[in-house]
Amino acid sequence: MKSANPVIKRPVILNLIILVNICHECKSLIRYGEIHAEAEKRFLRFIDSDDGLFPSIGLDLKINSKALDTVEEKGLKENIDSVFVIHDSHKEIFPKIHASVSIAKKENGETACFTDLAAEAKGVKRIGVLRADIDNLGKIFKSDSGFGFQPKYKSLSRDKSLSRNLAKFFTHYLDDILKDSEFEDCITVVYAGGDDLFLVGAWDKVIQAAFKINEKFREYTLGAVSLSAGISIHNPKFPLYRMAEAAGLAESVAKSACKDTDGKALKNSLCIFFDDGVFRKDSPSHVFLWEDWKDIQDEMKLLESFKLSSAYIYQILIYVRELIAKRRSYHFPRLIYATARMEEENETLKDWRKEYDDLRDEEKSKSRWMKTWVKFRDGLFECFEKQESEQSKALLRLRKLETALNYLLLLGRESERGEYNAI
């Protein structure tokens, strides 16, 4: 006979301690990361270690391994011959090496993780990944026409000086750029040196930093050398190696998508992938020359002045994407309807319409309404009813508009559960 009150068997939860064995290379990398995060404030040296990551050739020509270690100030006298610092200006008497030490920190001084970096972003909480390198570096060293010195002046000392000074920008001056209050504790440099860099941070700050870095690099090289860069934007839990792949793909698109009238790649460009699930290698969208960013900013300011809802911005985005991909849009009637409804409900546009209706006929052409919203709306509805020679200009404008729309949608979203997914 069954009991009236059966005993409910509950699962027993055990607290298990899982011990993870890791190889000495990983241990060394973890230790190196801990030291590197505080390197600017510490004295450093290399010590003999069986598990070291850094190879060293001794006097007997045998290859030994070295590990990076810190030295306390009280121990400097005993290690004075082997101590060095990371380009710290107030430790002049010690040998220096140049390496970027820009690492975002939390308020308590701990190193910021990806979730912490994403929390610093405006709008949606995502991180941006930037990869960039110098354009035509081989031609610069070969002294081809238009790059560097003439071939007759080529020498080993010239190449060494050129290499050292280009590397110094990424390993030394980059830190000064990122110490700007706008970027401090929002961006971490994964690596920087030679002719390239890889950094992560709050997505909007990474985009802003890309333009600041490019501006300073052009000043540093007097405009003789250019950069190309790729940015991808991700959920902070997205795997880092996949972020690196996406940003690397965006960088390769930036170097190949923008072409001159002869079909030659212009480089000197930036490509942005706005979604971590869509890497469009063959799409020229979100690729533009550095100087084109001003046009995109103007588009964003214009759209912001209209006080448009995210839902309507998304309607425009769907329409623009179809125009770019197919040169026509089946979404056009829906956009016309959405525009008419939006004009009836948008308080800003209603005020402008009232202002317009109250003006005399000779003043209507000067009204703010006529100069802004109507011009933008009519230009948007022009589609591709133009001569073929002008379609390329229209396409470039649509691509800039698509970038502006994606940027505004990310700024307008506060979480990953937004209804409108920017791509």
Write up what this structure looks like.
- The chain is of the alpha+beta class and 423 residues long.
- The protein folds into 3 domains: 24-97, no CATH class; 114-282, Reverse transcriptase/Diguanylate cyclase domain (Alpha-Beta Plaits); 301-412, no CATH class.
- Helices cover 43% and strands 14% of the residues.
- The chain is built from 14 helices and 11 strands.
- It has a 6-stranded mixed beta sheet with strand order 7-8-6-9-10-11. Strands 1-3-2 form a 3-stranded antiparallel beta sheet, covered by helices on one side. A two-stranded parallel sheet has the order 4-5.
- Helix 4 packs antiparallel against helix 5 (203-220) and helix 7 packs across helix 14 (388-412).
- The termini are far apart.
Quick one: CATH class of the largest domain?
Alpha Beta
Protein structure class: alpha+beta
* Helix-strand string: HEEEEEHEHHEEHEHEEHHHHHHHH
Shape: elongated
Number of H- or I-type helical stretches: 14
User: If you consult CATH, what is the topology of the largest domain?
Assistant: Alpha-Beta Plaits
> What is the CA-atom radius of gyration, in angstroms?
28 Å
Strand order of the largest sheet: 7-8-6-9-10-11
